[in-house]
Amino acid sequence: MPRKAAVIGSGPNGLAAAIELARAGWEVTVYESRDTPGGGARTAELTLPGFRHDICSAIHPLAVSSPAFASYGLKEAGLEWLDPELPLAHPFDDGTAAVLARPLAATADALGPDGSAWRELMAPFVREWDQMAADLLGPPLRLPANPSLLVRLALPALQPALSLANRKFHSPQTRALFGGIAAHSMLPLDQRPSAVFGLVLAIAGHARGWPLPRGGSQAITEALIVRLHHAGGEIVTGREIRSLDELPESTAVLFDLTPRQIVRIAGASLPSGYLRRLQKYRYGMGVFKIDWALSEPVPWRAEACRRAGTVHVGGSLEEIAEAERAAWRGYLTPRPFLILAQQSLFDPSRAPAGRHTLWGYCHMRHHSEASMVSAMEHQIERFAPGFRSTILARHTMNAAQMEEYNPNYVGGDINGGVQDLRQLLARPAFSLDPYAMPAEGLYICSAATPPGGGVHGLGGHYAAQSVLRKYGRE
């Protein structure tokens, strides 16, 4: 008889774990509390009919770099990646913009006197990105295939992004470009290791781009489900699991959930010491998210922004650092740093003919119910005069509503927990095998395990490998 596994949660990590086990001959069932699967990879008509908005994830540099996703044949399962002409643009008040172009040389050339420093910082890792991605995105205590390259990366990466940007670059534009990328860390830019996020995402952009899936992020979920069904697994939607007693007898139970939900469901089965460590797990800043339906593209002053899939809005490095510091400390700021995505410029399926969508969020205090609509739209208007006149409709979610939508986003934290030095190495608790809990057959496979947040499926991939090491294949 095949061994049985139950996976709680159908985000990309949960689906990846289920695929790995089903391919190994296990009988796998995924349980999803909502009526549709997907976790952070869902798409819906949030504003007006015909406008398709990504509810959480939108741009996916780590998905196209994921060794797990690469092994599943997602293209054959219907997933198509679209590459914007420019992965990223960062506008300034003078009407210019700094850009992250896919070719490293093009970015370096556009950065003028900082070009050689950018090239020196990125080039060795861009050349070795496929191997580096496997090492960087793997479990932290695993022996890397190229340790010398990781050590070389660690020297600039394990420091605050603010320090690295000011030390390495001379122009305000280059500093701001790097600082905006590093702000994806959801850490203050004067805190370690915010620089590693700037480096990894910039290197990934040069090596693989910052692509978006045709039809929306839901297309990633749909391709994963095709592969799961092909391997013999199944999904049960509309079924919230509140206790382990609600599951059929299983050899392994894998949680695509963060520690708070795991404590509620399985706390009675966990040793007291480990339970206390899960209860001390820390969550970070929340987000305020807006999806706009637009009558036309955003009227950016900087021409490069009209060709970019992602636009970072925040001005100078100092402004970005102040905005992120305020959000971390729980203050509202009139000039938040925004991460925007312009999917409809490159994917006409996202909006009716001639119309457009805009996706965006800023960081804010944990659990906040405050509105950031006025501040966010004022920031966009600063670099795109006339933006407000293009708005047909908007859909908003504050930090508290983000958690209501997806309980994994505790307090609105879409990264599944703070990713500072401590919780990069001890995620969710320090262990030689962070995916295996100290209770028979219980495993974590969410963004609360290495390598952390993002759509890449690797938490599930490595958790399933941990299961197979202990129990074997069918």
Quick overview:
This protein is an alpha/beta fold. Helix content is 36%, strand content 15%. It has helices spanning 12-23, 67-72, 104-110, 115-127, 129-136, 147-157, 161-168, 172-182, 194-208, 218-231, 259-266, 272-279, 317-329, 373-383, 399-405, 421-425, 458-471; strands at residues 4-8, 27-31, 43-44, 53-54, 81-82, 86-91, 97-100, 212-213, 234-236, 252-255, 286-294, 308-313, 338-341, 356-364, 391-397, 442-444.
Strand content: 15-25%
Quickly name the level 1 CATH class of one domain.
Alpha Beta
List unreliable stretches of 5+ residues.
Answer: none
Oligomer: single chain
- Give the second-level CATH assignment, the architecture of one domain: 3-Layer(bba) Sandwich
- Overall geometry comes to globular
Could you tell me the CATH topology label of one domain.
Answer: FAD/NAD(P)-binding domain
Q: CA-to-CA gap between the ends? A: 8 Å
Spatially, the strands of the biggest sheet line up as 7-6-12-13-14-11-15
C-alpha Rg (nearest Å): 21 Å
CATH level 4 superfamily of one domain: FAD/NAD(P)-binding domain
Determine the mean pLDDT: 96
Could you explain how this protein is built, in words?
The chain has 474 residues and is an alpha/beta fold. Among the domains are: 4-42 and 60-80 and 213-282 and 409-471, FAD/NAD(P)-binding domain, CATH 3.50.50.60; 106-170 and 178-207, no CATH class. 36% of the residues lie in helices and 15% in strands. The chain has 17 helices and 16 strands. The protein has helices spanning 12-23, 67-72, 104-110, 115-127, 129-136, 147-157, 161-168, 172-182, 194-208, 218-231, 259-266, 272-279, 317-329, 373-383, 399-405, 421-425, 458-471; strands at residues 4-8, 27-31, 43-44, 53-54, 81-82, 86-91, 97-100, 212-213, 234-236, 252-255, 286-294, 308-313, 338-341, 356-364, 391-397, 442-444. The strands form four sheets. It has a seven-stranded mixed β-sheet with strand order 7-6-12-13-14-11-15, with helices on both faces. A five-stranded parallel β-sheet has the order 9-2-1-10-16, covered by helices on one side. Helix 1 links the parallel strand 1 (4-8) and strand 2 (27-31). It starts with a strand and ends with a helix.
